[in-house]
Amino acid sequence: LFEKHPDLQDLFVPFRGLKSDELRNSDRLREHGLRVMGTIEKAIARQHKPGKLYNMLYDLGSKHRMFDTKVEHFEFLGPVLLHSIKPAIGEKWTPEVENAWLKFFWMIATVMTEGMTDALQDS
Questions:
Q1: Angle at 17 between CA 30 and CA 65, to 5 degrees
Q2: What is the per-residue pLDDT for 72?
Q3: Residue 122: per-residue pLDDT
Q4: Residue 120 has what pLDDT?
Q5: How far apart are the first and last CA of the chain?
Q6: b or e along 67-95 (b: 16 or more beta carbons within 10 Å of the residue's beta carbon)?
Q7: In the chain, N or C terminus with fewer CB closer than 10 Å?
Q8: In the chain, which residue ranges form alpha helices assigned H by DSSP?
């Protein structure tokens, strides 16, 4: 994400000013990535409970408002996450699988955006 959109790195206080090699070796960045992947795992587990899934993502979006995250930042996330997930799926990666993941990320971004937008209006 930071390689393709270096301006976003400044949103993450612990990563401001770090060079690429420092980021690659950063335990804090690895921890953040694991939290993101944990959220994706929870979202998958809740896909058959739409109310719980919606509430989780909406609340997460509201919390991201505190970090000065902008709605437009979410458009960058899907392709970066796909790039991360694709190697793990390997040969089973197909255009249909890619499309399903893109739709899934778009749903996550849409609900989180609602939470962010509402949090902004409430402040």
A1: 65
A2: 78
A3: 64
A4: 66
A5: 28
A6: eebebebbeebbebbbeebeeeeeeeeee
A7: C
A8: 20-24, 27-45, 50-64, 74-89, 95-122
- Tokens representing 82 are 């796909």
pLDDT of residue 110: 92
Q: Which residues of the chain have pLDDT under 50?
A: none
At position 98, the amino acid (one-letter code) is E
One-letter amino acid at 27 equals D
pLDDT per position as a tens digit, 12-29: 878 888 898 998 899 998
- Residues in contact with 54: Cβ distance below 8 Å, sequence separation at least 6, in sequence order: 111
Q: 59: closest CA among 120, 2, 123, 114?
A: 114
Quickly list DSSP for 1-33: -TTT-GGGGGGSGGGTT--HHHHHT-HHHHHHH
